[in-house]
Amino acid sequence: MDPATIYTEPVNLKSIEVRNGGEGMSMGATVGGTLNLKLADAVIDSNVRLSGSMASGYYSAAASVQNVLAMNYSANRWALRVSGVYRKAGDYMDGLGQRIAFSQYEKLNTSVSGKYLVSKNSLIKADFLLDDGWNIGFPALPMDVGYAKARIASLSYELKGQPGILQEMDAKVYANSVRHAMDDTRRPTVTMHMDMPGESHTLGAFFQFRLKPRGKHILKLKTDFYYNSVKADMTMYPQGAAPMYMKTWPENHQVVAGLFLEDGIFLNEKSRLDLKLRVEIASSKLADQMGKNQFAVLGYEVHQPLNRFLKNVNVSYTRFLSPLFTVYVSGGLNERSPTTSERFGFYLFNRMDNHDYVGNPLLKNEQAWNGELNLLFSTTDFSWKLTAFGSLVQHYIIGKTQPELSVMTTGAAGVRAYENIPSAKLFGAESSFNYQFFHQHFILNNTWKWLQGEDHRNNPLPLIAPIKTITSLRFLHRRLFLQAENEISLRQNQVSLDFGEKETRGYTVFNLRSGYSFAMSRYQLNFSAGIENLFNKAYAEHLDWGSMLRPGRNIYGMLTLKF
Known about the structure:
Blueprint: E1 13-20, E2 33-39, E3 50-59, E4 64-74, E5 78-89, E6 105-119, E7 122-136, E8 144-160, E9 166-183, E10 193-211, E11 217-237, E12 244-268, E13 271-286, H1 289-297, E14 306-320, E15 325-336, H2 340-344, E16 346-350, E17 355-358, E18 366-378, E19 382-401, E20 414-437, E21 442-455, E22 468-477, E23 480-489, E24 507-519, E25 524-532, E26 554-562
Parallel strand pairs: 17-20
Antiparallel strand pairs: 1-2, 3-4, 3-26, 4-5, 5-6, 6-7, 7-8, 8-9, 9-10, 10-11, 11-12, 12-13, 13-14, 14-15, 15-18, 16-17, 18-19, 19-20, 20-21, 21-22, 22-23, 23-24, 24-25, 25-26
């Protein structure tokens, strides 16, 4: 299904937590990292009964509109937060002045969060998120999305500040349901009409707690469980012939249970050692006979459940060299199981390389030896972080061309099946700094990232982005801010010829942003405006599907009322 990020909005997010390598293993077995989107909570404040904001904005590149509402009501022991976002966009204009057909979309997102104080140290929290999108264009694909619907809910109990051995506890049950349907009925020329609906349903729970420090040790423990069911199919309607039906994701069920343990050891006032361990058991099986028959044609026996055992170990060391300078080193062994598409996908079209893909139920787990070095320097006005990282991935999963198989998608260049290759290497570096000067009226930011990947024969891996850097300079004075941005991406000439990649040109883009706040007795009115892609550059990033050009000059404005 689509990535989880499309079902959230900035207005209903509290924070985004990014962990590299095995650092985020508490949320699941992973080799590359984790992304944790935390929803905004209701706020209990008896002094402020009602608060919130309303906003409306317009963006010229796609003639798009955005309307946002967020409200929080609080009593003495409970609070309720409600937010909603409506977006609608037409086809956008690229830097050549051409309208990109089938890039329109429309969506509605709402979320509700409730909180109740059971005692001064404990609370119950409930969250619900609804996201509906429709008429979502995909200009790089032969089909659009007729609808994408997500329903996400959770109920949790939190206990903090206890005087006994159990200092913190967090227990949560959650459920989500996602339904998605591809649609080609709005395309003027379709060789063969197709229907492609799919759905995913998940039910899970976790329980985690932190114990009272014992000597130099701080222990954290988490146990989690989830059940996931997915299925997708496709019906093709050739002219003058009977419809053809197949399972693109045969209905399959997966059960995963994990146990995570972390021990934070304070060696002395300047040194800390963190040990993390996660073990995970996963079992998956196909649940419909047609799906089993499809893979039998490819030579796979999938009548029995496929069981996996995953292990993740990470060790990190933090050294505070001075009040200003910190060194952080980490390393470990991490594993991940193949995704649903890698295991059970059946003739899924990938526009990136113009191939149909079939899964491989017998894939091995990927195993990665990860290492990372971080240098952090911070003063009152200046902060800088430099990170170098590397991974040696064994049983790396990649698609390989199968010349004996015929394509299913009209115009596809061939069929690829997922395979394990002996190993692959990924290494790179990234940096970020922030400098405030002239009495903090000016703020200078810069970030850059470089990544390189090679397979076991030292050939470039596909889908590796080139060096990219973003620099911004912001001027602040009372209620006014002005900001200039520059984004530079270098040329990518380290491409995978086997994958069919082509070299892509570098680009540089400039943006201007501004904002002003009007203070009133009980309200605050904020106006923001800017120009993205100031010089109307015609460009595409290396990982953009079909090398579709990105939007050209985009002039936007937004008015926000806070109360």
